[in-house]
Amino acid sequence: MAAMERDTLFTDAGSVRSERVLYTPSPFARANLVHLQETGRLTATAEHTSRREKLQSFLCFVVRGGSGRLDYDNQTWPLHTGDVVFLDCRRPYAHSTGGAAGELWTLQWCHFYGPCVAAIYQKYCERGGRPVFHPADPERFAGLLSEIYDLAGADDYIRDMWLNEKLNTLLACLMAESWQPSPRQDQRRPARRDIAPVRAYVEEHCAEKLTLESVAEHFFLNKHYLARLFKEQYGVSVNGYLTQVRITRAKQMLRFTDKPIALIGAECGLDDANYFSRIFKKVEGVTPKQYRDLW
């Protein structure tokens, strides 16, 4: 499925020692999958700075040892052992080894791209994700990057599919970190309130006449504050999540009961049959009756 430069490139350029794989995905992978562009490991032997911009690529790297800094989005971020970086290489950026302590670093990285990655990165930023964070388990990210590196050199005719799987796992791990960056990186920001009980309440009471205002009032919260927190944590508005819960419950009843469609709508909090049908079709692409017949 892919043509690639199989030989690992070893370089000793005076300021770094590195080993990397430059990867050329197949046309199919380039058009349809999250695909690898480059992956590798380096150890700095002298202070140096790498600058890039306008690359059609996204970069993730882990600082395995030492320290340095990242300049990105008009900010400077100190980097230390265990930190993870995730950034959009279409924007200007620079990373430099030799932080305040003068330590030279060791990095693991991969460059990747795909039809959906820009939208995922935008969602990552909307949820509060930062270019630099310190995960509780840096080894999880380092392990994924090692697996990607090994796969890039594997002799497997569906290598692009395996790389797509690992890169999507990497994106999922990055997204999981997005709404609660490291306290070390964000000491001035107050801790965010856990709103899992709000989600549970919406699920339990979805058949009732819920609104953002009524949910916020139940939890003694400002509705605007609740709306922002809920979307940051779950990636969807309170009303959007309520609709998802109602449609999921309706699908269960359409498939596994003989209840009339109007009654199903009412039991899901959508009393008006026409409105229920319209909302259901907007979400599923078919009417409740068509959905029942298809399944």
List keywords for this structure.
disordered N terminus, 295 residues, 4-stranded antiparallel sheet, single chain, 22% strand, alpha+beta, 11 helices
Describe this structure in words.
The protein is α+β, with helices and mostly antiparallel strands and 295 residues long. It has helices at residues 27-32, 117-126, 138-152, 159-176, 196-204, 212-218, 223-234, 238-256, 261-267, 273-284, 288-294; strands spanning 9-12, 16-22, 35-44, 49-52, 58-65, 67-72, 75-80, 84-88, 93-97, 106-113, 132-133. It has a seven-stranded antiparallel β-sheet. A four-stranded antiparallel β-sheet has the order 4-9-6-7, with no helix packed on it. Helix 3 (138-152) runs antiparallel to helix 4 (159-176) and helix 8 (238-256) crosses helix 11. The two termini are 35 Å apart. 31% of the residues are buried. Residues 1-10 and 184-189 have low confidence and may be disordered.
Tell me briefly what this model is.
The chain is of the alpha+beta class and 295 residues long. The protein is 41% helix and 22% strand.
